[in-house]
Amino acid sequence: MSTEHVLEGKTALVTGASRGIGRAIALALARAGATVGVNFSRDAEGAQQVAAAIRALGTEAVLLPADVAEAEAVERMFAQIAETWGALSILVNNAGVVDDQYLTFMKEEQWRRVLAVSLDGAWRCSKHAARLMVRKRWGRIVNISSVAGLTGDMMRANYSAAKAGLLGLTRACARELARYGITVNAVAPGLIETALTADMPASRREALTGLIPLGRFGSPEEVAEVVAWLCSEAAAYITGQTLCVDGGLHT
């Protein structure tokens, strides 16, 4: 199904939108007609490039700098959204970090930072976004989880826990917000071609590819199209669900 122009008149915030999957989601929502808020924490140059690409599509883009792990930064970002747009239609909680280490060697700060961005940040943004969406009795929240949240991942107890937590957050928010016409879903990507996988040793890539029934890594755009569809009216009767975009890795 094409999502072209199906989000005309909608406003969207994508966290962690300066690169990778977040960038692809921001562009997919823009192609669907939404005005897009490009959130970033450190990569201002990347965010500016994404905003320029959105504007080249003929759609408005707004840069929204904020570390979603910081409560005051998120409050300022949503104050800017309220002042600029007056409302918010779509929130995609994509921001996340990795800090890999074996469980027995993982430091307290490694654990807390990963959960602070990926899980606390999503809760924080969802809370503020829901307040704006309730007024309009319409909204879409999509949480970018991971297959790691379903299966676990070596050296990533922090990341796996955060991504699993997102699934619980998704289900709870879906039940609570449904009465207001707000759907909340999760997308769980598998092995996707991003900066995180670009430097993977060939032997490791070959071994992982062998585990994927479709026999290849996915692209950020393949994840983004699913997100754009979930934000459309075509997915209006879907809430509280997790869609795996993983080539059959998790079955």
In short:
The chain is 46% helix and 15% strand. It is of the alpha/beta class. It has a seven-stranded parallel β-sheet with strand order 3-2-1-4-5-6-7, with helices on both faces.
What is the H/E string?
Answer: EHEHEHEHEHHEHHHE
Instruction: Kindly provide the radius of gyration, computed on alpha-carbon positions and rounded to a whole number of angstroms.
Output: 17 Å
Mean pLDDT: 96
**Sheet having the most strands:** 7 strands, parallel
Oligomeric status of the shown chains? single chain
Which class do the helix and strand fractions yield? alpha/beta
Q: What is the terminal separation in angstroms?
A: 24 Å
What does this 3D model show about the protein?
- The longest helix has 29 residues, at 108-136.
- This protein starts with 10 loop residues before the first strand and ends in a 6-residue tail after the last strand.
- 46% of the residues lie in helices and 15% in strands.
- Helix 1 (20-31) packs parallel to helix 2 (44-56) and helix 4 (108-136) runs parallel beside helix 6 (157-177).
- It is built from nine helices and seven strands, in the order βαβαβαβαβααβαααβ.
- It is globular and about 50 Å long.
- The mean pLDDT is 96.
- The protein is of the alpha/beta class and 251 residues long.
- It has a seven-stranded parallel sheet, with helices on both faces.
- Strand 4 (90-93), helix 4 (108-136) and strand 5 form a beta-alpha-beta unit.
